[in-house]
Design a protein that fits this description.
Elements: H1 4-29, H2 37-46, E1 51-52, H3 53-59, H4 67-76, E2 80-84, E3 92-96, H5 98-117, H6 125-148
Antiparallel strand pairs: 1-3, 2-3
Helix pairs in contact: 1-2, 2-4
Length: 152
């Protein structure tokens, strides 16, 4: 039998992929075809903030995606506004446009509906809190490995 760590590695990736499919299904149901699921999550994470692409990359986890390319596509499709920083002309900041804010609000409503359905799926707040604690511990473990080249 393998260690639960092996299962966790596979499960984290699989759960992320499934969540992306859930977001894609919602976009399809709404008839939104000019933004993909990864871009929608980037947009959701920008929220009311204004940030650089570097800050966006550091804040989110966009597996298998090029954040710069996705930002460019969202600017082209009117979801993001891109502006040069007045303090550092080399730095480009992004924020949500009105269209982007509208989609952010729709996604937020959709996620709130999901929260309302968690109990029916046998998931309570305590379950999620415990799972989040475990994921945070794994994140710290892997960050230590990245930063120091060793385990704790």
């Amino acid at each position: 039998m393998t260690h639960p760590y092996h299962e966790a590695i596979l499960l984290i990736e699989r759960v992320h992929r499934h969540f992306l499919e859930v977001v894609k299904s919602d976009l399809d149901r709404q008839g939104i075809q000019d933004i993909n699921n990864v871009q929608a999550l980037i947009l959701y994470n920008v929220a009311q903030d204004e940030m650089t692409v570097g800050e966006l990359t550091a804040r989110g986890y966009y597996l298998g995606s090029n954040v710069s390319y996705n930002v460019k596509k969202m600017v082209e499709n009117g979801y993001l506004i891109q502006e040069r920083s007045p303090h550092d002309r080399r730095s480009v900041r992004v924020k949500l446009s009105e269209k982007g804010l509208g989609l952010h609000n729709k996604l937020n409503e959709y996620f709130e509906k999901q929260i309302g359905s968690l109990a029916a799926a046998g998931l309570g707040e305590d379950d999620l809190t415990k799972g989040n604690e475990t994921l945070h511990k794994l994140e710290r473990f892997w960050t230590t490995m990245i930063n120091y080249g060793r385990t704790v």
